């Protein structure tokens, strides 16, 4: 059985149980649908990995450190006291939260999730639980989470807090001899104290003092001291603070690699699955899920990582994810000065051009019942099917794979030009103009006479 079918099988197998396991256990399906409504409508968000790791930006003592930029403390085996020097140099004088939000909004993104504390333990918000934060430990001395949350709120975007369970700085969480800072086997006897006196108090600070936070995006949940029991307790703890919160499945312990599911092939705890750097071939049927992805090869800024995905790849990935019923959380890694690198800004600008014309074919859509055509993807909302055509036919004829009923109306979304639909021996054929409005993806709107028409 193909891996994708295995995932689908597991997903279908556990679909019924997942609603309870995934969300708050005392929540009805209607209540859960209401809580998830804005998130399902949004489909497209900005992930931001920003922190003291942007200061070395991938280079330590003159040597380029392989791997992810935000992992430099681990990859280069940097002792805590030395890494703290990067914190003391972190001074993003060019940070302009409104500009960042404008860029996200113009790209068509509807929410932002930022690292409030990554694995290095350094908090970008003003934590009273710790002096290891933006206000107390840097020359910048300002709460960047406060600024960005307010800017997102002002411009109508939702806001989320990424929080790492794994913490390489706190003595009760990290390994004292730091061989890798990333043990899946090491047990810290004081981990409970870290959870109860540090992690949960910081989570409480975030939820109670930053009212714009609607999503908590856990990560670093693979450490040996974390488990589903703790995850469920923290999930309920957060929901008691803010019942409308949406929490990802990395609040649980058993994420299976980058698939976004646990060993049972289910979302497990939390409200949505989190495939990383990949789009599940068949999506994750029956559950909410979000693919997170980098634009180059690192989440946190590296000065020499120029392996940028092109706009065509990024947009087609967004369409692919939406066609399978998922959200796309696309990452940006700002510099230590608070600047979004130019290749990121240009790509997001180009994505926005397409989204301003075709956004209705993405936002609030769901998986169609017509499968994945060879020439592109389908999305669907109500009685309307959106055919996203990647490969424009040279002869102008396109087989509407999977569809049988002639749509009541067909037209190009870009300019509302009517499109002829012909019923032939092999099914339905679209007669398209010679030149497509977009060489990345042209959307044809197919208005069906009734929902469920085939
Ligand atoms: O280790 C982290 C990594 O730095 C990054 O934050 C990604 C984003 O989803 N999550 C973990 C790797 O799965």
What's the CATH superfamily of the largest domain, by name? Glycosidases
The number of strands is 16
What assembly state would you assign to the polypeptide chains in this entry?
single chain
- Give the low-confidence spans: 1-21
Walk me through what this model shows:
With about 450 residues, this protein is an alpha/beta fold. The strands form 4 sheets. Strands 7-6-5-4-1-9-8 form a 7-stranded parallel beta sheet, with helices on both faces. The chain has a 4-stranded antiparallel beta sheet with strand order 10-11-16-13. The chain has a 3-stranded antiparallel beta sheet with strand order 12-15-14, with no helix packed on it. Helix 9 (about 230-240) links the parallel strand 6 and strand 7 (about 245). It has 2 domains: about 20-360, Alpha-Beta Barrel (TIM Barrel); about 375-445, Golgi alpha-mannosidase II (Immunoglobulin-like). The protein has helices at about 5-20, 30-40, 70-75, 80-90, 95-105, 135, 145-155, 190-210, 230-240, 310-325, 340-360; strands spanning about 45-50, 60, 65, 110-115, 160-165, 215-220, 245, 290-295, 325-330, 375-380, 385-390, 395-400, 410, 420-425, 425-430, 440-445. Helix 5 crosses helix 7 (about 145-155), helix 5 (about 95-105) packs across helix 11 (about 340-360) and helix 8 (about 190-210) packs parallel to helix 9. Ligand FHN binds near residues 68 and 219.
């Amino acid at each position: 059985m193909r891996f994708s079918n295995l995932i689908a099988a597991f997903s279908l197998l556990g679909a019924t149980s997942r609603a309870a396991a995934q969300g708050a256990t005392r929540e009805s399906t209607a209540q859960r649908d209401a809580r998830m409504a804005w998130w399902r409508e949004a489909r497209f968000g900005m992930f931001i990995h920003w922190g003291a790791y942007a200061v070395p930006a991938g280079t330590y003592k003159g040597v380029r450190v392989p791997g992810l930029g935000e992992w430099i403390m681990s990859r280069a085996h940097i002792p805590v006291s030395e890494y703290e020097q990067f914190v003391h140099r972190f001074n993003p004088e060019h940070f302009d939260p409104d500009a960042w939000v404008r860029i996200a909004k113009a790209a068509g993104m509807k929410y932002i999730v930022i690292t409030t504390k990554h694995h290095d333990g350094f908090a970008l918000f003003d934590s009273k639980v710790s002096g290891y934060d933006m206000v107390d430990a840097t020359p910048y001395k300002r709460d960047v989470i406060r600024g960005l949350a307010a800017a997102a709120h002002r411009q109508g975007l939702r806001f989320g807090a990424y929080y790492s369970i794994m913490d390489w700085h706190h003595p009760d969480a990290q390994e004292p001899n730091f061989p890798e800072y990333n043990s899946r086997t090491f047990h810290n006897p004081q981990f409970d104290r870290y959870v109860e006196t540090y992690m949960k108090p910081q989570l409480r600070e975030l939820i109670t003092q930053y009212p714009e936070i609607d999503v908590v995006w856990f990560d670093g949940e693979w450490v040996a001291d974390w488990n589903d029991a703790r995850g469920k307790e923290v999930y309920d703890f957060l929901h008691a603070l803010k019942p409308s919160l949406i929490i990802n499945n990395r609040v649980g312990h058993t994420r299976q690699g980058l698939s976004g599911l646990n060993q049972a092939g289910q979302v497990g705890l939390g409200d949505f699955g989190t495939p990383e750097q990949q789009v599940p071939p068949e999506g994750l049927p029956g559950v909410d899920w979000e693919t997170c992805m980098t634009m180059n090869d690192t989440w946190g800024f590296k000065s020499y990582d120029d392996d940028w995905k092109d706009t065509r790849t990024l947009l087609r990935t967004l369409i692919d994810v939406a066609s399978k019923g998922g959200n796309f959380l696309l990452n940006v890694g700002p510099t230590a000065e608070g600047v979004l690198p130019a290749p990121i800004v240009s790509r997001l600008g180009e994505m926005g051009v397409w989204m301003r014309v075709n956004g209705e074919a993405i936002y609030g859509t769901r998986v169609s019942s017509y499968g994945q055509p060879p020439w592109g993807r389908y999305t669907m909302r109500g009685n309307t099917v959106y055919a996203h055509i990647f490969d424009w036919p040279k002869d102008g004829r396109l087989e509407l794979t999977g569809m049988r009923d002639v749509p009541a109306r067909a037209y190009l979304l870009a300019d509302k030009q009517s499109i002829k639909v012909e019923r032939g021996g092999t099914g339905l054929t679209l007669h398209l103009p010679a030149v497509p409005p977009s060489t990345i993806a042209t959307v044809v709107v197919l208005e069906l006479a009734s929902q469920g028409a085939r």
